[in-house]
């Protein structure tokens, strides 16, 4: 069986986080969506995604293919109904495509926009990441599900005696090479997962559900409330509540981050703070790219959504429900706009264009610090985003 992740119209709903990646490469819980499916099915996947991403995330079509909406989260019930599909059947929940099983010719037609296959209707609602706020809203239950998936029939590394654990020891799992010293870990509200070669420095206060992924660092004295995930190769300090840092990003100093999603290759300067609750306690509105206007999230708590490669200086303030695009460089006093377009430079005193060549120079330097190479494919993706988002940079 050949498996393919498919990006439908939900890709636009999840902008700016998906400007640089397929939906299935978003992290919710401990794992990326792609990693969840790979573990459940013990299989590899390719991607039917947007044209500017297809070179970095190529597609491979076989003779017998199951194509899955990249926004769908796997669980036992959803897995069973997808695996029961016959060739030529397409599975839908209401008007949302969930999965299909097709031969090579029909798969090629499907990814090119044809959809004249036998439609099967689901009689239960699957779990979908159909809005970026779902990433932090569903993070708790997904973290618990991933914890069970990852740790089943495995033994945790021992916890150093310098630490204090409150709650069940069985809900704490420490991977090989991880270092945890002189911290307090509370598992009463959910599990705590500490990834390979991660480090939790002295004096940290952690309340589950919480995950810190491989090679990530929690700085001294950090205060972490669940449900929070720190993605791989990230450094985090200060106070964090119900947030997801997808990976390779830093919030290394004091400051508050709440009900937020931070992309990859981001940096939040010292004492950066975001609001996650309006003063009048009303539902939070956030920028919607397909509609090009602010739309209610139906949430009272919603903080900051930041696309890949964006950075902000010290003492930056973000208002409730702020959406920051890709490759922004933000600084200055006062609150930033609630919608900051990609490749913006400046702050409350005014914005201008972040010159493309300067943004690329920074991206290359950031990759070098992680011993990675920012290549022509990565540059072409940012070039597409720069051109696509120019309409919003009308400062």
Describe the structure.
By secondary structure, the protein is α/β, with parallel strands linked by helices. 19% of the residues lie in helices and 30% in strands. The chain has 2 domains: 2-130, Spore Coat Polysaccharide Biosynthesis Protein SpsA, Chain A (Alpha-Beta Complex), CATH 3.90.550; 135-392, 3 Solenoid (UDP N-Acetylglucosamine Acyltransferase, domain 1). The longest helix has 14 residues, at 356-369. The chain is globular, with a radius of gyration of 21 Å. The mean pLDDT is 97.
Topology readout:
Elements: E1 2-6, H1 10-13, H2 33-41, E2 45-48, E3 64-69, E4 72-73, H3 76-83, E5 89-93, E6 96-103, H4 104-111, E7 118-121, E8 127-128, H5 133-137, H6 139-151, E9 164-166, E10 172-174, E11 179-180, E12 184-186, E13 192-194, E14 199-200, E15 205-207, E16 210-212, E17 217-218, E18 223-225, E19 228-230, E20 235-236, E21 239-241, E22 244-247, E23 250-251, E24 256-258, E25 261-264, E26 267-268, E27 273-274, E28 285-288, E29 293-296, E30 304-306, E31 311-312, E32 317-318, E33 322-324, E34 329-330, E35 339-340, E36 344-347, E37 350-353, H7 356-369, H8 376-388
Parallel strand pairs: 1-2, 1-3, 5-7, 9-12, 10-13, 11-14, 12-15, 13-16, 14-17, 15-18, 16-19, 17-20, 18-21, 19-22, 20-23, 21-24, 22-25, 25-30, 26-31, 27-32, 30-33, 31-34, 33-35, 34-36
Antiparallel strand pairs: 3-6, 4-8, 5-6, 28-29, 36-37
